[in-house]
Every structure is written in structure tokens, then in C-alpha cells.
Description:
By secondary structure, this protein is α/β, with parallel strands linked by helices. The chain has 15 helices and 26 strands. The strands form 6 sheets. It has a 9-stranded mixed sheet with strand order 2-1-10-9-11-12-13-14-15.
Amino acid sequence: MQCWSSSFKYIISSGLKLIWKRSFWEKAQEYGSKTAIVSRKNNYSYHQLLRDAKQKALLLAGGKDLEQARVAVLVPPSYAYVSWQWAIWLSGGVFVPLSPSHPQEELEYFVRDAEATHIVVSAEFQDKLTQLAGEYCLPYLRVSPVDGSLLMGSERKKPNVDTIEFPVIDKKRNAMIIYTSGTTSRPKGVLYTHDMIEAQIKSLVEAWQWTSSDHILNVLPLHHVHGIVNVVCCALYSGATLEMMEKFQAQPVWERWMLNLIPQGSHISLFMAVPTIYHRLIQMYDAAPPGIQPLLSDAAKSLRLFVSGSAALPETTFHRWKAITGHLILERYGMTEVGMALSNPLKEEERRPGWVGYPLPGVQVQLKDEESNQWITEKAGRGELLIKGPNVFREYWNRPKATAAAFEKGYFLTGDIAQRDESGFYQIIGRSSVDIIKSGGYKLSALEIERVYLQHPAIQQCTCVGIKDDEWGESVGLVIVLKDGQGDDVSLEELREWGKDKLAPYKLPKKVKVVKEIPVNAMGKVQKKQVAQEMFG
């Protein structure tokens, strides 16, 4: 079982009958009183987290086995979130995280699709699912957003967990359903077992050398793999400290890092984010008074690792971050169905901007030619990325046909196009459904075109999309945000003239749209089909 697997290194005992290695027992004494989570200005130890989770598990299931029943949880990124995650797993349930940013209709779709048998909801979001819970007669637990305790109307006496024997949970049982972002179809529930989550965690802990001395600041939403596994699970598995910032804002992040400069302060060592967040942190740095900027730089330099993912990191951001902080951001590749699969090396001198590195420990990767559908056996090549390993999901929930279609020879078909060099280093060319533009017989990489135009002196941000074209099949459209002081518009002719020495003629944009902001989803990804439709019809 495993997001908390190794967090259950910290088990103090209480008749808990879970399938763990003896080393978890031994770690318990070492980390029992250590701070596990900092949330809403409160510190919670590993011992307290485990005890609270066991109490919630008893309130949820009475010490009985939920037998893989799905429990939907709508709670902010906080101590409350983690304690309920652990409680559900302790009870033998399947954790289904929801996001407050989801519209009402989508929240209801997730609960129905997952066939949830219980709903846990933070008080500030209680109205979002009340009607649905009543319609389906689902147990509806209204909890505190601070510590996850039951609120008035559902309060019960706290049980004595020391005398309870919890269910035996096999690692191969279902553990979590995360819903895809639904970029190409209605969101699908991605089902993980406990050992699949554990495999993802162990791979990252090894590759990025997590230790119990690490302290990570989380600013990511917790309904995607990036925040749940890469941050929360890896931190608690390692005996590290997880500090929650429930909503990202650039200034509070910089201010928190500056506390690293105080000798007695708690020292943030890790930070993981999406490219949009790094962009906004850079904007905040640039807007800071000149006398403050050196302090900001020193604060960021004191961290040991910055990681970016969930979308392509612009090379301009990569190099600007290096100039400000001295750090080369580590880029990696993953997706909901596989967790993390590829990563740049931990050694900074071996990282490459715009590339996502080598397969992570335990992960097998193949390429399949886009035209012939044959697997590429040469060292270097370009094709669809195929992934296999203990990290890969079990199935799409209640979608056997979609699950069967997603695999070939035991490998998951990612739908992403990648290229591999002679050394085995990978670069993502784009998603076949939205980032590969088929124009006049050519297959163009939208990410390549974006990388080029992000070097334009007037462009702050851009996204490249395919536009339906009667003559070409698709043509290249460019949506851009201009830098401050660059006016409100730039002509298509100027952009084509600037790009002609950097791109082949058939890769140059045929339409351009200047906007104030490019819309992104909760994970910082541009919904390209939506953008293409809204901007170009």
C-alpha cells in the first residue's frame, strides 16, 4: 500500500495488521515525533498524523474493511486532506480526490462515474455535493478544513484506536482513482493499486535522492499525480516535512524561501511546480526593488532542487531561472496513467533544457514509428512513446474497451511523440492529438515552433495550435502574449519574417492572435483544442 507506505515507517503500533517490511517498524521510533506536515500555521508529527488517520478510519468504517469502496474527497490541500487519504487506505477504501476548482457538473460526474459510496467534504465546499449525496443516499461527512475532524451535526466521540485491529490490506488491492484532464474525451478514472503507487514513489525517491532531512513547500493542487505522488507521497514516504500552501501566490512563496536565510528557521529544500508558476515567480522577482533581488536570489539558491513538469518548460524560463537562482530546473515527463516515467539527471551538469532525460528506475520505454507502426530498435529515433513498468495504472475505471485499446504488448500507448538520441536521452515533440500539426503532408511539432517564438524579444508567452485549413489540412496558428512595453499588437508578416531564418517555411505561422493571457487548466496546461476554437474558429 503505499502513498503512506513508508510513512508507515512511522507506525507506533496499535494492533495494525498491514503488510509492511520490518524496516517500517524501526523507522517509527526515529520519526514518530518528527514534523510530518505544516498546514495553516500548525505542525503535525508523524505520530499525530497516524493517530488522527486511524480515528478517522474508525469513524468512516467502524474498523471494518471497506473492501475497495470508493470514497470521494473534496478537501483543500492541507493536513485534513492527508489525514483522510490515510484513513481511507487504512479502511481498505479507494481514495478519489476531487478539486474545488472543478465546476459543479464535473464534480457530480466524477462522483457518479466512480460509483462513490461515501463523500468527505470540507465545510467551505459542502454545498457543492449536498444535493448529489441526498439523491444517492450517500454518507456525507462534513469536516474541518484545518484538521479534517467531523463538524457539528456529524460529530461523534473520538474512538480509542489502541484497541482496534484494522483490516489486512494487500498491496495489489485498488487504492486510488485519479481522473484525466479530458483533453481528448470525457475524463476517465485512472485506477491505481497500492503497489503501483509504491513503485512510483520508490522510483522518484531514488532518482531525486529524497531523505528525511528534506522539507518541501507544496503549491500544487492535489487531484493530479504531480501533487499527490511527486510531492505529498514522496515526502511522507521519506520521513521528510511537507509544508502546505493551499493556493499558489508568487510573493508568499518568495517570502517563505527567504526564511531559509534565518539560521534558526525551518529550511525549505525542494520545490516542484508547473512552468506557469516559474513564469510568475520570475515576474515577481523582476518587479521587486533592486535592493531586494539579491536576497531573493540567495533564498532560492539555498534550496537543493527545483523540478518542473505537467507541461513543457520554455527554454527562456529555464535560462532565466538559472540567471536568477543559479539552479538548472530539472524537467521530467509523466502522465496520469503512468506517474513519472522520464527524468533529467540529478546532476545539474547533465541536464538539458527542453529534454526530459532517461527512463526512471524500473521504467521500460519504447518508441513506435508513426507511419509504419513498427517498434524502433535503433538507439536513436522518433515515434510514439510506449511505457511499461510497475508504475503503470491497472485500468480505466469501468472502461474495459478503452483499457484494452491503451496497451500494446504490455506497454501503455501514451499518445505522445518523442525523439531519442544515441545516448538514450528523450525529448517530447508533442501530443499526437494536439501538438502534432499535419500541414501539407508535413508533421510539425507545435512545441518546436513555440520554443523558437519564445525567443522573440517581444513575446512573453505563446502557444501554437493547428487550425483547420481546406488547402493544407491544418495550418499553424500562434497565440501570443506580448511583454510589457511592447504595445498591443504585432503583425503576422513581422513574425514570419523574424522566424524564416529559424524555421522551415512550412512551419511558419499563417495566423496570429495577440491576447492578454493564455488560459490554462489547474495544472498549467493549455487546453489547445479549446484555444484553437476560441481564437481561430
